[in-house]
């Protein structure tokens, strides 16, 4: 049996006024209409922080200041990749957030995050975040 290929992904938790930004994948895309935090794959030679800055610029049109690492977890998708997710707090950003690639983007209260249909790899982190651990 073949080993799953590994993907390193950096995701940003952007918080404003007690709400966090979550993004819904486009209908018809891989895992379409699932929710996630903005971010994406780390390219060869990039650090997860640098990748997150690049991804937030591409996806949302902002220049982000990436803060501390909030969590790191791995998830193996059936018949797919093993994804290592690194979640970072985004301390601040400049520019106006634009939805460049998603079906929808929403500012949501932490306590309501578990009611969204998140990617399987994000679910454990979403539950912890909604429960206040790690604190933002």
What does this structure look like?
The chain has 136 residues and is α+β, with helices and mostly antiparallel strands. The protein has one domain (6-130): Nucleoside Triphosphate Pyrophosphohydrolase (Alpha-Beta Complex), CATH 3.90.79. Helix content is 18%, strand content 40%. The protein is built from two helices and seven strands; from the N terminus they run ββββαβββα. Strands 1, 2, 3, 4, 5, 6 and 7 form a seven-stranded mixed beta sheet that branches. Strand 5 and strand 6 form a beta hairpin. The radius of gyration is 14 Å and the shape is globular. The model has no long low-confidence stretch (mean pLDDT 93).
Label the structural class: alpha+beta
Question: What is the global morphology?
Answer: globular
Low-confidence residue ranges: none
Which fold name is given in CATH as the topology?
Answer: Nucleoside Triphosphate Pyrophosphohydrolase
Q: CATH top level?
A: Alpha Beta
Short summary:
With 136 residues, the protein is of the alpha+beta class. It has helices at 48-60, 120-130, and strands spanning 6-16, 19-24, 35-36, 39-41, 63-76, 82-94, 104-109.
């Amino acid at each position: 049996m073949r080993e799953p290929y590994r993907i390193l992904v950096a995701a940003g938790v952007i918080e404003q006024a007690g709400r966090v930004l979550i993004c819904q994948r486009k209908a018809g895309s891989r895992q379409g209409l699932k929710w996630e935090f903005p971010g994406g794959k780390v390219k060869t030679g990039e650090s997860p922080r640098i990748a997150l800055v690049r991804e937030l610029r591409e996806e949302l049109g902002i220049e982000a200041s990436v803060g501390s690492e909030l969590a790191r977890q791995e998830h193996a998708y059936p018949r797919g990749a093993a994804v290592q997710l690194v979640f970072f707090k985004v301390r601040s950003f400049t520019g106006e957030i634009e939805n460049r690639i998603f079906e929808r983007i929403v500012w949501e209260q932490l306590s309501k995050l578990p009611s969204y249909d998140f990617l399987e790899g994000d679910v454990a982190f979403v539950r912890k975040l909604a429960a206040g651990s790690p604190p933002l």
